[in-house]
Structures are given as structure tokens and as C-alpha cells.
Specification:
Blueprint (H helix, E strand, L loop, with lengths): L5 H24 L10 H15 L14 H39 L5 E4 L4 E4 H16 L2 H15 L9 H11 L1 H30 L5 H20 L4 H21 L5
Helix pairs in contact: 1-2, 1-3, 3-4, 3-6, 3-7, 3-8, 3-9, 5-9, 6-9, 7-8
InterPro entries: FliR (IPR006303), T3SS_IM_R (IPR002010)
Membrane topology: Multi-pass membrane protein
GO biological process, one term: protein targeting
């Protein structure tokens, strides 16, 4: 006769629920998986499927009642870890979107904005275009599968434990968040430089010929130059975006290691 003790039952439940919580945290915010257009049932089904695959390979979890205070604290801790890992990759897309915002504002397309369902805010047309381009590169290079592989490795780098995570991981995530601004400026710099030269030329032209209506000819010229520069620069954006996405994968590993509790 097979007998199952309450300790064994708690271990089985905890060995599935706690990894599932970390996985759902990543799925909730990671690019593609966390998109609001993906139905909640699909996200839950994907999380359960990944948990069924990953849970048997997870190092031994603490033998605690998942409904106890310590069990709930571990559950919340796994959710925070998952959100931090997924947010590390989301920062890459935020940097690309910021580059689009800078380009759009410099071109004079700041008024051409749309509602972005992902961020639930207004976003420029150029920003959404670059975000979709980055998503296509993200899928074409199979980095979404690399993200899932990194998630599975995180259970070895940061095993499930009742110890609290280290503050160094939070500071590491905040430091990585600064990459939004540097990446946005770097990606938009060629187009912004061309528009700066264009605006300088228009300023000189206005001073030499005051009778010209700068508002009548300035906006069409800057918008045209902006689109021409986007067409010219677009083929060269693939490598910088891929490098940025790979930096996001590396940042996920760094943040995971930094979150490890100090013994």
C-alpha cells in the first residue's frame, strides 16, 4: 500500500507552484509573451506547460507548507524574481521605442501619435514602427526561445529558497534601466544628426531670405529628410538591435545572479 505523508504532498505542490509563479512573472512582462493582445488563457496555458517541463529539473525546494507564512513569502519572492527577469528584456524594447520618440519629435511628427495597447499610453508612429521591427528581429533570431532557455537556467543560478533575495539585484535592474536612454540616443543619432543639419540650413536660409515662410517650407522638408534618412539607415539597424537584444539576455543572467541571497 502506498502512503503519502503531508510533507510529501506539500513538497509536490510547492515544487510546481513556486516555479510556476516565477515563470508567470516572466510571461507577464516579457516581450511577445506579455503583450496584451495575447489572451490570458494562452499565457496561463503556456506558463503551466513550461512549469510541467521545468519543475522536474528544478533543484530541491524547501519542505514548507505553501499556504504558510513562509510559503506565501517564497511565492511572492518568486513573482518578484520573474518580473525582474522579464523586465530586463522589456527595457530593450523601451530603448528602441524611445529612439522612435526622439526621431518623431525631431522630424515634427510629435502630433502623429496613436494609442499603444501595450503601454496604455500615446506613442508616435515612428516609435511603433521601430518596436514592430525589433519584435520581428526578436522572433527571426529565435531570441524568444533563448529567453525561455535563460528562464530555465535561472532556477540553477538562483534556486528557490526561503532566504530573501539580495538588494544587489534590484540595484542591478535599476542600473540596466538606464540603458533605455543610451540605447534610444544611439539608435536615433544618425537621423537626428541629419535633421540637425537640415534645421541649421533652414535657419541660415531664413536669415538670408526673411521673406520665406519657414513654417510653410520647414515642416515638409524636415519630415521628408527624416523619412529619407530612415530608409537609408534601416538596413544598418539590424546589427545594433540584435546586439541590444543580446545585451538584454546577458542582463537577465546578471540580474538573476545578483538576486542570489548572500550567505
Amino acid at each position: 500500500m502506498i502512503s503519502v505523508s503531508s510533507a510529501d504532498l506539500y513538497t509536490w505542490i510547492s515544487g510546481f507552484i513556486w516555479p510556476l509563479t516565477r515563470i508567470m512573472g516572466v510571461i507577464a512582462v516579457a516581450p511577445l509573451f506579455g503583450n496584451v493582445s495575447v489572451p490570458a488563457r494562452v499565457k496561463i496555458a503556456l506558463g503551466v506547460l513550461l512549469a510541467m517541463i521545468i519543475a522536474p529539473t528544478v533543484p530541491a525546494v524547501p519542505a514548507l507548507d505553501p499556504m504558510s507564512l513562509q510559503g506565501v513569502l517564497i511565492l511572492m519572492q518568486q513573482l518578484v524574481i520573474g518580473l525582474a527577469i522579464g523586465f530586463a528584456m522589456r527595457i530593450v524594447f523601451a530603448g528602441v521605442e524611445m529612439a522612435g520618440e526622439i526621431i518623431g519629435m525631431t522630424m515634427g511628427l510629435g502630433f502623429a501619435s496613436f494609442f499603444d495597447p501595450q503601454t496604455r499610453a500615446r506613442s508616435s508612429a515612428i516609435s511603433q514602427f521601430l518596436a514592430l521591427l525589433t519584435l520581428m528581429i526578436y522572433l527571426a533570431t529565435n531570441l524568444h526561445l533563448v529567453l525561455l532557455s535563460t528562464l530555465a537556467q535561472s532556477f540553477d543560478l538562483l534556486p528557490i529558497s526561503e532566504k530573501f533575495v539580495s538588494n544587489a539585484g534590484i540595484f542591478q535592474l535599476a542600473s540596466w534601466g538606464g540603458r533605455i536612454f543610451s540605447a534610444g540616443v544611439q539608435l536615433s543619432l544618425p537621423i537626428v544628426a541629419a535633421l540637425l543639419i537640415t534645421n541649421t540650413a533652414l535657419g541660415i536660409l531664413t536669415r538670408t531670405a526673411p521673406q520665406l515662410n519657414i513654417f510653410g517650407i520647414g515642416f515638409p522638408i524636415t519630415i521628408s529628410v527624416g523619412f529619407l534618412m530612415i530608409v537609408a539607415v534601416l538596413p544598418y539597424l539590424m546589427n545594433p538591435i540584435i546586439n541590444l537584444l543580446q545585451e538584454g539576455i546577458e542582463a537577465m543572467n546578471r540580474i538573476t545572479i545578483a538576486l542570489a541571497p548572500i550567505n
